[in-house]
Each structure stands twice: as C-alpha cells, then as structure tokens.
C-alpha cells in the first residue's frame, strides 16, 4: 500500500529528503520552499526527514533555527515550515533518526507522520522526482 495519497495519474509526486538540521541552518530552508512551490503547482509533495533532518520539525526548533542572510539577520525556519504546511506539503520522519537524537513522536510538530524504511523506498520508487538535501 502506497503512502502517497493520490492515485490520479495526472498528479506528479515529488519527494524531498532532508538530512540537515541545527548545525547546518543554511541547508534547512531549501526543501521547504521548493516543496511549497511544488505543492502550489498542484503536485503531491512530501518531505522525508532522516539523519539530522528531524531536528527541523522538532517542537521549538523552528523558532531557534535561523536561516542566515548575507549582511545579517535572516528568517526563522518556522516561516518556511508554515508555508509548506499551508500548501499541503506532508512531513514524514524516519524512526531510527528520531532515536539518533533521543526524540519521540511527541517531540515533533503537529502533522508529522512516521514511516519506515520500506514505506520510504516504496514512495521513492513511485515518485516522479526524488530530491535530496
């Protein structure tokens, strides 16, 4: 059974894989804004958080991870997370990566779903595009 929600052959499926977290803030926003754009184009879009990626969707981290900007300042990751969620992007997390950081699903923001390795591989095989960060 596929984790993808749509069976419409006209709908493209895009799977982003986020492996970066708190130590690489400059690498955290891109999957969110690309996923937001993809969803706005009427595609089904998911972001899969593995390795350090779950740090991006841990409660409170959206406020503390600041995306740097040349000249100073920057935006909180929360801004990009909220845009993606508002556009229907689904957030999926890897259980072993939660364990790596001592997280449980209770530590994740609302709407995050857990999937296993087999489900991820099924999604990747069924996706029209898989893009990693």
Structure, explained:
The protein is α/β, with parallel strands linked by helices. The protein has one domain: Hypothetical Protein Ychn, Chain: A (3-Layer(aba) Sandwich). 31% of the residues lie in helices and 23% in strands. It contains five helices and seven strands, in the order βαβαββαβαβαβ. The protein has a five-stranded parallel beta sheet with strand order 6-5-2-1-7. Strands 3-4 form a two-stranded antiparallel ribbon. Strand 1, helix 1 and strand 2 form a beta-alpha-beta unit. The longest helix is centred in the N-terminal third of the chain and has 11 residues. The model has no long low-confidence stretch (mean pLDDT 96).
**Lateral strand order in the biggest sheet:** 6-5-2-1-7
Helix-strand sequence: EHEHEEHEHEHE
Tally of helical segments: 5
CATH domain class name: Alpha Beta
Q: Share of helix among residues?
A: 25-40%
Count of DSSP E strands? Answer: 7
Major sheet: size, sense and barrel closure? 5 strands, parallel
Architecture (CATH level 2) name: 3-Layer(aba) Sandwich
Mean pLDDT across residues = 96
Tell me, briefly, the overall form.
globular
Number of domains: 1
Q: Indicate the proportion of strand residues.
A: 15-25%
Point out poorly predicted stretches. Answer: none
Rg (CA only)? 14 Å
Give the end-to-end Cα distance, rounded to a whole number of Å: 26 Å
Query: What do we call the CATH topology?
Result: Hypothetical Protein Ychn, Chain: A
Any idea what the CATH superfamily is called? DsrEFH-like
SS-based class: alpha/beta
